[in-house]
User: What shape does this take?
Amino acid sequence: MDKIREKLATIRADADAALNRAEAAENLVKRHEQDLLQKDQEIASLQHRMSLLEEENEKLAAQLKQTAQQLETASTSAEHEERRVQNVERERDRWEAKYEDMLAKYKASQAELDDLLKTMENI
Assistant: This one.
């Protein structure tokens, strides 16, 4: 009978140990399930954020393309205006040279006229 009681006590002790291990395992499973749920929520949040960032990236890429086109147009216009300015400057230089030439001729004619008038006064 003592053997049966000892065997029964051993079985109870094994059962208690198994129950403790099962409870510990259940607690561990619950913790892992909570961690998994938290990770799933983090993944969903990150996926949503990634989606928003992709949309923003697409908008920025479109804006960049538009800005690049505007820059190219502005650059082309600036080059055209630069050529116009150069042409106007050349024309101005031509007119200034013509003015200087005419002024020199006028002064020469004026001096010649002054000399002629003095000569006529002396006669």
Summary: The chain has one helix and no strands. The mean pLDDT is 95. The first helix runs from residue 2 to 122. The radius of gyration is 51 Å.
